[in-house]
Amino acid sequence: PPQFLDEESSPSHVSVQEGHNVRLVCRAKGVPKPTLSWTRQHGTPINSGLGAKVHQVDSEELMLKGVTRKDMGPYYCIARNKVPPSISKRIVLDVHLHFWRFSGQLLINSSRQETQEIHDGYTTNMSLSLKAIKPRDFGIYVCSAKNSLGETESNVRLYKINVSRETEKANESNKKNEGEVYSHEK
């Protein structure tokens, strides 16, 4: 009967960043050589990456391109030959989601705003840069991270500070005298 080759197959839990590609591998041995196919839990379609959705992929490897949160969840590799029983291996795909929201809307990169992720081991630092600030940009920005294990978010408030003419003149005078400009980042 079929038997999985665990050392040549993907682990039971695979994590990938949203928008990246992932390759799930499933290898098996037996006589005759088993055929392998992939399905999803509850018959959920598999995104082939070409815009087509299929319910089964016959292959040792399942390539998923540009994964999204809709691709998260369990995938099943099924090995069959003419000797019963058929066997299945469950591989859970976890898609890490990092994003910014403002006024309930997901923020995407544009000429006025840019999001960036900096990965360092198990840590991801999120930054949001805003250009040509307008009154409608003031408010609460939400930085969120989600995966199959949970979610977390943090709020950052951008607000307008009214500066009097005297304060502006004093700041300009200090800058000229010091010859340096100091900035504060958070």
TrEMBL record:
GO terms for cellular component: neuron projection; plasma membrane. Keywords: Cell membrane, Disulfide bond, Glycoprotein, Immunoglobulin domain, Membrane, Repeat, Signal. Its main location: membrane. Residues 2-88, 100-159 form the Ig-like domain. It holds the Pfam family I-set. It comes from Petrolisthes cinctipes. CDD domains: Ig. PROSITE patterns: IG_LIKE. It is found in: Cell membrane. This is Ig-like domain-containing protein. The keyword Cell membrane applies. Residues 167-186 are annotated as: Disordered.
